[in-house]
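BUG-428 | component: ligand-complex export | severity: low

The export step for uridine-diphosphate-N-acetylglucosamine jobs runs without errors, but we want the raw record kept on the ticket for reference. Input record follows.
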Amino acid sequence: MDSFIINGQRKLQGRVYISGAKNAILPIMTATLLTAGKSTLTNVPRLNDFKNMAHLLRFLGAKVEHENEQMIIDTKEINQYEAPYELVSKMRASIYVLGPLLARFRKARVAFPGGCAIGTRPVDLHLMAMERLGAKIKVEHGYIEAECPDGLKGSVIEFPFISVGATANAIMAAVLAKGETIIKNIALEPDIDSLIDCLILMGAQIEKVNNKELLIKGVTELKPFEMKMIPDRIEAGTMLLAAAITKSSITVSHCEPKHLEALLSKMEQAGCRFEINNEDCHPLQGEQPFEITIYPAQKINPVDIVTEPYPGFPTDLQAQFLAYMCLADGSSNLKETIYPDRFMHVAELNRLGADIQVSGGMAIVNGVAGFSGAEVMATDLRASATLVLAGLAAEGMTKISRIYHIDRGYERIEEKLNNLGADIKRIL
Ligand code: UD1
């Protein structure tokens, strides 16, 4: 199993390019199941989550090619409607095939996703949404068996609380349902906007009635599409925090500052300053690319955060921000409201010299003068990124084992950081 060896306390400088957004691309990959033909996604990095999703789509009968940031998915010959356990257990986002398969083939059999390192993560809202659209659902022998022999029918779906995944699945199912669907209390993440943009390109009729509600008029057919994927706000945020924690100034290019407002405002409170510019190179299709230059705080102010659905502070940056707050001049509280158990990284950060206690979904962080390098173990995707940040700031050498988690969601993170001046080696 791969590990990282990091020699810490190197200053970072230069420019880093942000890749396409993992959490936007995964549902768009499954949206290709809604049509029969060749769709093209560009700005797609090489992530293990995409390999796993491609594997699942191929199992269903699709052809998937991924080369040079371009992914072509041909769904002409889909001949399966089952997502088996060995594929689903590798990646929770496999549940995204449920809505598209039901909508197009009126049948789906998807292994029930298990828990993961960040909590139990149920799928009841996904199932509720499918039932509201008329599907009959049974959970048997570890599988979700769903069918709607006469097709899905438009309805009102009201989520009791916000779920990114259930919103995406509900939208993908409703676009081919008969009649109108209203979806209330939707997730507002940029990943959802990008899925909606993609479905509209495919011919779906989707309107935002207001900030919390969608109106979808079902159509009978959707067509293949070509679309450039949005930049990954979590990768951009991780890079900004890598600069902040090493007190370095870098430029994060090809990102969307609008998607990062909650983080930028908290980092400003910590004492960082930012310059946001339009890039004059590599213009993206039809949109203005941006770059953010960070000027780090030399003395870090402690800042409290509460994770919330977008536009609140993202849970996927909680662990990285927590590492940053370990070096603040004072104490801070970080409350996790999305996944109250998502603090597996705390014990590892404490091994590196941090002073963090966790109680009732809240981390209380007492700032320390610095991290000291040690051997630690990555437990999940964002926890791995956090340990990399701490290792960059630590005095001496840090060895992080089980970094396969990081390859699920960051493309060549060590290369990107080494290009900025870090000293990270990947060893087998
Ligand atoms: C997505 C992201 C993940 C991010 C999370 C929250 C992808 C592939 N993953 O995950 O990186 O951390 O949003 O921003 O985009 N819940 C239920 N029942 C359900 C569904 C969710 O109780 O049927 C709960 C979850 O356990 C969690 C909360 O709702 O407490 C939000 O989860 P959700 O937004 O659905 O997360 P995911 O879509 O799984």
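Assignee comment: Attached the raw record above. The two ends are 6 Å apart (CA to CA).
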